[in-house]
Amino acid sequence: MLPGRNRESSDRFGRFTEWVARAMGTPGFLAGLTLFCLAWIAYNTWGPEDFRFDSAALGFTALTLILSLQASYAAPLILLAQNRQDDRDRVQIEQDRQRSERNLNDTEYLAREVVALRLAMKDMASRDFIRQELRSLLEELEKDKDDVQR
Prior knowledge:
Elements: H1 5-24, H2 27-46, H3 61-123, H4 127-149
Helix pairs in contact: 1-3
């Protein structure tokens, strides 16, 4: 057997189980199954007696067996489809957790950078501070100039 062949076969069967689960959960399936059962019962109740194949007197045994067989296959197929969905959900949850962790780390880094920029901005001289310093220097120079002229 080829190495990838088993996985491909398993995946194909998994997709089939999901298709069955999706199909059985539709109103069309329920309506079709209802019509099938009604047609079966009607034919075997009012159809030509020589051509009836499931007796109403015996409680439609063949119909009961067919529906039991359908149910016995449907339940495991639906469970398999749910297991596949659970596996996909688990992978998605792990990816979401990793993405959230990265986002948190990025946000914390950006917050630290913003704080560092704010601290750096506090140490920088503002325009008003520089103007005030220049005015005080100008006043000192004018005072010195006046002292020198006297």
